[in-house]
Amino acid sequence: MAEYEYAVEMKGIYKSFEGVHALEDVGLSVKPGEIHALMGENGAGKSTLIKVLSGAHRADAGEVFVRGKKTDIHNTRAANDLGISVIYQEFALVPHLSVAENIFIDEFGSEYVRIDWKKLRARAKAALEAIGFGDINPRIMVRELSVAYQQVVEICKALTRKAEILVLDEPTAVLTNKEVDKLFGLIRSLKEQGTAIIYVSHRLEEIFRLTDRITVLKDGQYVDTVNTADMEPQSLVNMMIGRDLKSFFPERDPAKQKIGDVVLKVENVSAGRMVKDVSFELREGEMLGLSGLVGAGRTESVRAILGIDRMDGGKVYLRGKEIKFKSAKDAFDNGVGFLPEDRKNQGVLLKMPIKYNITFSCIKRFTTYFGWLLKKAENTFANEIKDKVGIKTNDIRNAVSSLSGGNQQKVAISRLLACDSRILILDEPTRGVDVGAKMEIFRLVNDLIYQNFAVLMISSEMVEIIGMCDRAVVFKDGRSVGEVQRKDLTEESLIHYAMGV
Hints:
- The chain starts with 7 loop residues before the first strand and ends with a helix.
- It is globular.
- A 6-stranded mixed sheet has the order 6-7-8-3-9-10, sandwiched between helices. A 6-stranded mixed sheet has the order 16-17-18-13-19-20, with helices on both faces. A 4-stranded antiparallel sheet has the order 2-1-4-5, covered by helices on one side.
- A hairpin with a 3-residue loop joins strand 11 (262-271) and strand 12.
- It is of the alpha/beta class and 501 residues long.
- The protein is built from 17 helices and 20 strands.
């Protein structure tokens, strides 16, 4: 009989990033031989908590006990030495190495060591057979395996490190139903062997099918830990939602808004493995939200529609005419502006002046036939856009890097407006900006709606979708699975579609 109740116990965990609290007094306790679900909306703090446990982040405060003993997990190596292993959605495998080499990669040191390849493959074969996957050839290159089998190799690698605490982060995101069944069989087998399993997933059906207990986080705080058998799906959803939205989002004046004809229509678009069947319509003078959980395929769908990534199937119509954009620039030239999620690397040129960031995409309008730049006209135009959008700066010659995150985002939006883009696609437009800047961006978007711009917003924050959008299309597993009208927009309605309830 073990002298401890919990394989891992986290108490009073705090973690902040640049003054923003990601975790506040969060706890998690997992027993040996237990499958414990960790749940919450996007941004609830699940990933941060797991990274603290794995040593990828250091907590600002709090205690971690492993098998009853207080410990300091200062890096990932320390976590591995304690028998903690995390398997993320993006596998840590080397594609051009064999299965056997990946499983025992820790044994390959920097110094020359003679390797008995026959023995290594035999050990890999035995390890795979022990978890019920002896059909995987240890000689085969990992890149030749299916995603499901690559995941098995990851788990096998963790177990050869003698992992007693296994964290699975959205493990079924890219698996077929048959592969999911096989993975669940493996997880249950590990449970019977006494492995403590932390299972991170948004899929309610999996949680109720597989887990013993559930811990829910919300806005970086601990909500509760419950027995799965004592819960109903609706009760669990209720634990994850509920906020007052009225004070945060500027009210939209119905008298100023006139929703018109469809300007962008998407039919049955597919692209790669992340986009399987996406359809929606965007109208003039409205704001359409694309909602869904992380990994649902929203950004990937937009990238395919705009020609940034290859579109495998489906059709796109711009103002009633079928079109196939060759690139984001092609879309831009056709009046469709795109604000990428990664502002600092793709949205603005940080070291360049604010003025240039606003005008560089439309510089031809300030250039003479002989290539001379009309600086006075450019400055006047840039200042007009700056004032219209509300960029707070003393001089448009200052570098964008001198601005706050919210004002940098306004510069990125200004570039779209400067080129007369009437259809705006905004991917996570308020990510990384403070509350005040968010409200200013929302007010700016409302003003654009009143001017009959068509705005498509991708947001992982359900409250933003509810507070700002006229309609929302919900994504799940690469598909558009539902549409919710403004009068019915609630976190409950969105999460029901996103989780397939």
